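dude i think i finally got it to work??
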Amino acid sequence: MAELASLLTPRLQERTTALIADQQQHSTWEGSRPVLLLERCWLRLKVVRVDELAQVLPPDASGEVPELERFRALRQAGRSSQQAQEQCWEEFGREACSEALRRFWHVQDAGNQGWTLTHYLRLVDLYRRQVEAPGPSPVPLLVLARGGSDEVHQLQWCWPPATPMRHTCP
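look at this
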């Protein structure tokens, strides 16, 4: 947690340390596990349940819609852009493909701070694996990007402090 010290006030550090210590009492994965969201500008730390994270911080899935996934697959299979587009129009309809592209480019222009469905699913999967592994469990902390910037949300893991080794030599 040393690298987080520069981001957190002493009060937020105490709160985070207590939350991490509390999580060590539970060894099973459940949706009520906490995820920390840090708004740096306001030094505000919000604790949300992992099963509520997608509602509180909706991931961008505009690039993973079936129309665009199919287009990419056709391009990878060697089809030209025009052939792939025409086949997608045939399979999904011209309007559906156009709407998928509009949504995708709108998000690209507005920005999603790098918070995509893939990143969200990766966070949940990694969190679950770390909780189910033997030993101490971390708590994920998302340092939120500043609004209107090109920054991306940064994922950090808050681990419990290491237990110091005791000397056994006289």
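The radius of gyration is 21 Å.
im so relieved honestly
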